[in-house]
């Protein structure tokens, strides 16, 4: 029996012109024009963006082809800038392809960024009805599912509060619940689930698998967490520099992806593409420098990371988190700064973060970095997240190797010693 197609992508290209800023609104265009007349910085230009007159063309996607079948759970993986988010935006009709054809069989519910599809002035309840109307559902159809949506989102206490007062975590919980329970044939999920707590992430993964198996819905899922890709997906596509380099078995795809990202670097320069889009992006990390000699890091050493940053806004009481992942991208442990720093708008500076490796075995590790503040409800508001922050290898110290096999030490997800953030 022939499988029914849900999505077909044929030779799709997406081209952008570097150094230009598209006009979003008349007000924005006037602001940009007036800033240019006055010789001031354009208030609508994103931080880190190079403004020039070269009009150089850049292909975010350069001729990709793949098919997705009804009821399939497809993982899309690749490094930052590979074209994953661009692919999802094309499928969600946020933007159109420059060349090629996209065939979609069914209605799409997508979560691309925190707050996508929500009106900030409306309450959580009102936004549920708004999203139902967008999908072509009647009020009676939404009524029949609204209690289930609210219960799943864990936001009942705040459901009649305008969503502009929600934390990023609450946004994601409600947005996912809406996408999972309202009528659609295709679900598209970007990395936004990373903002939720671990328990809710697992709940979402179980729900996506459930709607795929029981309801025959198609799921497209993008993540840097290979453990969740393994858990959810039955097939994967690997993207690199805007091209499909592999499609097929999940484990084989993950091996190819990790092999292409197996690079340790003393220094690293970050771009906007390296920063996760789902957070508020009020802090931009420009450069990372590891103060240690990366070829000589041993169990028990402190790894010192010097970070150059630029602030987008005035922010007080910022805390930092480092998450340590295995080569399989499974979270092993995390640590949080025991102090806070404050920054001023347009401030450029350097800070130092220190990772204590005393309970890490000799192995290769990946590091995820995030910066956040706490709102009045004690919820995290993320202002900067970089998934591929650093890669490092820890070597054995012979004097510590008295009968204990450090190579197989595995404590699961544990709390690492906290650290102090220092402004340099």
Radius of gyration: 22 Å
What sort of overall outline do the alpha carbons produce when their principal axes are compared? globular
Strand segment count: 20
How is the main sheet built? 6 strands, mixed
User: Could you estimate the helical fraction of the residues in percent?
Assistant: 10-25%
On the 0-100 scale, what is the average pLDDT? 81
Quickly give the structural class.
alpha+beta
- In N-to-C order, the SSE pattern is EHEEHEEHHHHEHEHEEHEEEEEEEEEEE
Query: Low-confidence runs (pLDDT<50, min 5 residues)?
Result: 46-54, 401-412
Contiguous helical run count: 9
| Share of residues in strands | 25-35%
Task: Give the strand line-up of the largest sheet.
Answer: 5-6-7-3-8-9
Specify the CATH architecture of the largest domain: 3-Layer(aba) Sandwich
Indicate the CATH class of the largest domain.
Alpha Beta
CATH topology (level 3) name of the largest domain: Rossmann fold
How many domains make up the 3D coordinates? 2
Quote the distance from N terminus to C terminus: 65 Å
Query: Could you name the CATH homologous superfamily of the largest domain?
Result: P-loop containing nucleotide triphosphate hydrolases
């Amino acid at each position: 029996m022939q499988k029914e197609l849900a999505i077909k992508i044929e030779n799709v290209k997406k081209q952008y012109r570097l150094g230009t800023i598209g006009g979003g609104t008349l007000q924005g265009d006037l602001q940009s024009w007036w800033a240019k007349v006055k010789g001031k910085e354009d208030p609508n230009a994103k931080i880190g963006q190079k403004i020039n007159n070269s009009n150089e063309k850049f292909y975010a996607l350069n001729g990709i082809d793949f098919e997705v079948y009804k009821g399939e759970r497809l993982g899309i993986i690749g490094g930052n800038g590979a074209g994953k988010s661009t692919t999802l935006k094309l499928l969600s009709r946020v933007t159109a392809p420059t060349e090629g054809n996209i065939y979609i069989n069914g209605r799409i519910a997508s979560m691309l960024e925190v707050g996508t599809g929500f009106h900030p002035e409306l309450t959580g309840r009102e936004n549920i009805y708004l999203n139902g109307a967008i999908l072509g559902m009647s009020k009676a159809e939404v009524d029949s599912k609204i209690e289930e949506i609210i219960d799943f989102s864990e936001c009942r206490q705040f459901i009649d509060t305008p969503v502009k007062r929600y934390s990023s975590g609450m946004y994601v919980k409600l947005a996912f619940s809406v996408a999972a329970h309202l009528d659609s044939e295709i679900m598209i999920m970007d990395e936004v689930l990373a903002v939720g707590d671990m328990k809710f992430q697992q709940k979402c993964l179980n729900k996506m698998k459930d709607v795929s198996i029981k309801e025959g819905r198609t799921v497209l899922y993008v993540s840097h967490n290979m453990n969740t890709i393994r858990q959810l997906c039955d097939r994967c596509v690997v993207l690199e520099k805007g091209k499909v380099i592999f499609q097929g078995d999940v484990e084989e795809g993950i091996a190819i992806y990790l092999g292409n990202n197996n690079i340790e670097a003393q220094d690293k320069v970050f771009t906007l593409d390296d920063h996760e889009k789902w957070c508020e992006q009020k802090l931009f990390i420009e450069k990372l420098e590891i103060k240690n000699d990366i070829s000589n890091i041993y169990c028990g050493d402190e790894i010192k990371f010097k970070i150059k940053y630029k602030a987008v806004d005035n922010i007080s009481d910022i805390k930092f988190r480092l998450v340590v992942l295995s080569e399989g991208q499974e979270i092993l442990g995390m640590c949080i700064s025991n102090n806070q720093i404050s920054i001023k708008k347009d401030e450029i500076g350097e800070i130092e973060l220190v990772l204590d490796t005393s309970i890490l075995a000799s192995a290769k590790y990946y590091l995820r970095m995030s910066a956040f503040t706490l709102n009045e409800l004690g919820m995290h508001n993320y202002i900067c997240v970089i998934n591929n922050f650093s890669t490092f290898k820890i070597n054995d110290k012979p004097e510590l190797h008295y009968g204990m096999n450090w190579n197989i030490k595995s404590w699961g997800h544990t709390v690492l010693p906290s650290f102090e953030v220092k402004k340099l």
